[in-house]
Design brief:
Elements lengths: L21 H30 L8 H22 L3 H5 L2 E5 L7 H11 L4 H9 L4 H17 L10 H6 L1 E5 L15
Antiparallel strand pairs: 1-2
Helix pairs in contact: 1-2, 2-4, 5-6
Length: about 180
């Protein structure tokens, strides 16, 4: 009798494919935004130091391009590993449509497509020269519509995930039984 072939660890799905609730995904999104303040601060300081920029308006577009690259490195690195810090906090993992870890190329695709969350309202605001208050209202409205559109996807995924061939899934790592349980758990 021959044994049934087993999937190699490289091809076996890593997690169940249940999408986290929309509210948890949006809470993770907001937490990620807060954590990015630190990334922006360090990257902005590095850029200002290296370019000897003294005025925030000098080299503004070059600094924006630099931050775009820094954000790309940050997200591609962590998504290829499965989770950012915010995703770990909210028990969310990003995988490809079959449940496998992302390649860096797929993570890059997801990063570029994720800008659909912000670019359309920002482009409209620039084109129509909208004041900051109106732009904020349009941006918040766009994000809400974008998030609610996931309710119409068969697997409850965001549009940029569907286009990139990725998905967010619930992921709770197994508890380590060898470590003593702490009173705050």
């Amino acid at each position: 009798m021959t044994a049934a072939p087993t999937a190699s660890p490289a091809t076996a799905p890593t997690v169940g494919l249940t999408a986290p609730p929309l509210m948890r995904r949006m809470a993770c999104w907001l937490y990620e935004g807060m954590l990015l303040f630190g990334v922006v601060f360090i990257a902005g300081y590095l850029f200002s130091t290296l370019s000897q920029t003294r005025n925030a308006m000098d080299n503004r577009h070059l600094q924006q391009a630099f931050l775009f690259v820094v954000f790309g490195i940050y997200f591609i690195w962590f998504w290829a590993k499965g989770q950012t810090l915010a995703m770990k906090t909210w028990d969310i993992r990003v995988v490809d449509s079959a449940g496998h870890p992302l390649s860096q190329a797929r993570a890059l695709s997801r990063y570029l497509l994720s800008w659909l969350w912000l670019l359309p309202p920002l482009a409209a605001g620039g084109y129509f020269e909208l004041p900051a208050g109106e732009l904020t209202v349009i941006l918040i409205g766009w994000v809400l519509v974008w998030a609610l559109l996931s309710r119409f996807h068969a697997q409850r995924q965001f549009l940029h995930d569907a286009l990139a061939g990725t998905r967010l899934v619930h992921f709770k790592p197994a508890e380590d039984k060898s470590r003593p349980r702490r009173w705050w758990h």
